[in-house]
Amino acid sequence: MPTPPPTGPLVTRATLAADLRALGVRPGETLLAHTSLSSLGWVNGGAVAVVQGLLDTLGPDGTLVVPTQTGDLSDPALWSSPPVPEEWWAAIRATMPAYDPLLTPSRGVGLIPETVRTWPGALRSAHPQTSFAALGPDAAAIVGGHAPDCRLGERSPLARLEERGARVLLLGAGYDTCTAFHLAEYRIPAPRVEVGRPVRTPEGTGWEVVTEVSVSSEEFDTLGADFERDRPVVRGRVGAADARLFPLADAVAYAQRWLAVHRSREEWIITTDVPAPRRRGPLQGATDATARGASDATAPVTRPAHRHPSDRP
């Protein structure tokens, strides 16, 4: 049976740039983009054309930032989709390649961020699980200095984006992918978790465990709906995708107030417990639970004891 033709719409580099300008993306601004390639329609040139359209819209003075997380660099004891035998855990920890900003591919955030990561001139932050990549004149200032014990907090690119008045673009992606909300989690009482990962040592690859703020995107869809109801969010269409555009600082401030009210007080207890075994795979950072497999939309972050949302098709 012949394969049916694509339904479209036909999307090109030029139509993407035109739609982004109509949405309100401005030349020279700094943009944190969360994206879903498949939501856009039939894109001539795929992820490359999307990145070209974004850069055309921002111009030479603008900076594009995307999440390039590597949640698979995590403790095999937490993997469950699929799990690995317990007798393998020690060997996996001992031999897992450590993070290399130039070599380690992103996972679970989609084709567009991975295309940005490998773009000529792109810079990537140093965090081994929750890195960001950037293109543009402010790239070094944004991704530099990402502390290895601060996934998505004050010493991460999110805080640098807030300082620079960046805006967030959700391009076919939902609020559950919005990393800006995670910065608010560092500004309210939050539990701590122990996070294991490979690390480079003078002798080769080793294994380390750091204590970090527990982060979760479990309520972010509801948080985002309330944010959009109460605060100015530009909405429109880019290709076939629903798109939203809003100031990052506004989202962080709203989330800080919202989470303080809506999160259970039990979740505020400071602990050093290792998270319960969960699924392996993409994180919106080195999070406390993961889902295996790549997606063309940014993968949300979840907390243990909650179900991880399914990846977008």
Percent range for β-strand residues: 15-25%
Count the E strands. Answer: 11
Q: In terms of per-residue confidence, which ranges show pLDDT below 50 for 5 or more consecutive residues?
A: 267-295, 298-313
Rg over CA atoms: 19 Å
Shape field: globular
Architecture overview:
The protein is α/β, with parallel strands linked by helices and 313 residues long. It has nine helices and eleven strands. It has helices at residues 13-23, 46-58, 89-95, 111-117, 139-143, 157-163, 180-185, 220-230, 248-262; strands at 10-11, 30-35, 42-43, 63-67, 123-124, 132-135, 167-171, 192-201, 204-213, 234-238, 241-247. A seven-stranded mixed beta sheet has the order 5-6-4-2-7-11-10, with helices on both faces. Strands 1-3 form a two-stranded parallel ribbon. Strands 8-9 form a two-stranded antiparallel sheet. A hairpin with a 2-residue loop joins strand 8 and strand 9 (204-213). Helix 1 packs across helix 2 (46-58) and helix 2 packs across helix 4. The radius of gyration is 19 Å and the shape is globular. The protein starts with 9 loop residues before the first strand and ends in a 51-residue tail after the last helix. The relative contact order is 0.19.
